[in-house]
Amino acid sequence: MNAMTRPITTLTFFRYADLSAKLWAFGMMQFAHQHLTKVKGQTFYRLMGSGKGLGFNPWPDWSTYALIQSWTGEEEALAFFDHSKLMERYNERTEERCTVFMISTKAHGTWSGQSPFIKPEGLQIESLYTAVLTRAVIRTSKLITFWSYVPTAQRPIEGATGLLFTKGVGEVPFKNMATFSIWETETDMMAYAYQSAEHKKAIQMTRELDWYSEEMFSRFSPYAIEGDWGGGALVPALARKR
User: Would you place residue 61 in the very low, low, confident or very high pLDDT band (cuts 50, 70, 90)?
Assistant: First the structure.
């Protein structure tokens, strides 16, 4: 399958510096939909805010927003990023913008009842790096129990071996949450997920206490990153300039 025509996923982060830009970004959480629903070649999208710090966090980070999109092919994605009036408006106001280009390698669960991340037929892994997106809708009756355990569950990630980047995002910061992370290897990611005592306990509690009304776990092969984040390339080996 041609690299430009296979299904891909992009995740774009936007950082805003001043108050007027942050207010504009917050407003676009509503007003951008009229443009995003008409994008050619886009099969799924979600605009998201972000939480402070690493991973899940109920307190919003007003400086950072995210846009995840699934595409029929990279050509359509590049046309949107390079030529759409909407992205032109975002670029005028952002301090930084960074887009991760990925191929879905594994997914289970649903997002708003959909399965948006399609693994291409005849997939060939192009990157040693692994990206992971976990997303959940927390049951209202379980919010207090869930958030009381989150700090303990996330403690190991601060020093996790092989973790290159992580950020908590979501449509609703305290209820509809997702975490995106990039790892040097799949082995590093698996070690954190299944060897950390705190994280293993969180998985057990999820099953026993039925925290989520909907959940999704998706794994990707990130093959290119465009733009800068934190003053430089997010993952230098994947940096691409056109």
Answer: very high
CB atoms < 10 A from the CB of 14, how many? 23
Which pLDDT does position 143 carry in this prediction? Answer: 80
Angle at 50 between CA 147 and CA 189, to 5 degrees: 75
**Domain at 8-227: CATH code:** 3.30.70.100
How many whole angstroms separate alpha carbon 178 and alpha carbon 28? 20
Q: What share of the chain is helix, strand, coil (3-state, %, to 5)?
A: 35, 35, 30
Collapsed DSSP state (helix, strand, coil) of residue 41: coil
d(CA 66, CA 45): 10
- DSSP E strands: which ranges in the chain? 8-15, 42-50, 64-71, 96-109, 130-138, 163-172, 176-183, 212-227
| Measured distance CA(220)–CA(229) in Å, rounded | 20
Which tens digit of pLDDT belongs to each residue from 128-164? 899 999 998 888 887 877 777 776 666 667 778 899 9
- Amino acid, single-letter form, for residue 31: F
**Which residues, at least 6 apart from 84, have a Cβ–Cβ distance to it below 8 Å?**
35, 39
Q: Which residues are within 8 A (CB) of 87 and not within 5 positions of it... i.e. 6 or more apart? A: 80, 81
CA distance 202 to 204: 5
